Amino acid sequence: MSEARGRLLASASRLFYTEGLHSVGIDRVIADAGVTRATLYRHFPSKDDLLVAYLTEADALIRTQVESARNAAGGSPREAVLAVAATIADGIRSPGFRGCAFLNAAAEYPDPGHPVHQAVLAHRQWFLDTVTELLAATGETAPGPAAQHFVMLRDGAMAAGCLTDPDPICATFLRGVEGILRYRDAPAAAGVKRRK
């Protein structure tokens, strides 16, 4: 990555995340990055290209965080699930947290055919697949529905975590993830069907 491209992407990422995708114009990114308009368009032919690059960088960062959490779990599938959840909670508690970059982008670009929305869907599918894989490794017999539950808890925590004190939100999210894991371990009650 060239220095100019790196500066453009760093400026765009910070501005888009803190102020919104529609509200930040190209001129603002150019001024913040200290480059010329020609330089921006050489690296990003349109604002949509810059927006997708911003989301691609956010996706790469999250993938790295998830991989690090998995590695830190020392091979225990259950601990890997908890480590990924802890990483999410740490992000919600971090200074400047403004919600999920992907949920925010989807709210601004609701058209499913738009490249920004497509980038959001690709990230969310990867995340759901990853959590499904993690939960399957714990012995969960219905990892798909359990992963959907995890993602819903995460989405709620991301939305609520930027509206109020994040500590109780994170505590609730982490209890919910522990509940998903305990549900798998609990013997099925008589007459109560398990997730399908």
TrEMBL record:
Question: Where does the HTH tetR-type domain lie?
Answer: 2-62
In terms of Gene3D superfamilies, this protein maps to: Tetracycline Repressor, domain 2 (1.10.357.10)
Q: Which domain of life is it from?
A: Bacteria
Q: Which InterPro entries match?
A: Homeodomain-like_sf, HTH-type_TetR-like_transc_reg, HTH_TetR, Tet_transcr_reg_TetR-rel_C_sf
KW DNA-binding (keyword) present: yes
Q: What keyword terms does UniProt attach to this protein?
A: DNA-binding
User: DNA-binding region(s): which residue ranges?
Assistant: 25-44
SUPFAM superfamilies cross-referenced by the UniProt entry: Homeodomain-like, Tetracyclin repressor-like, C-terminal domain
Pfam families, from UniProt? TetR_N (PF00440)
- Report TM segments: none
Its name, as the record gives it, is TetR/AcrR family transcriptional regulator
Species of origin: Amycolatopsis plumensis
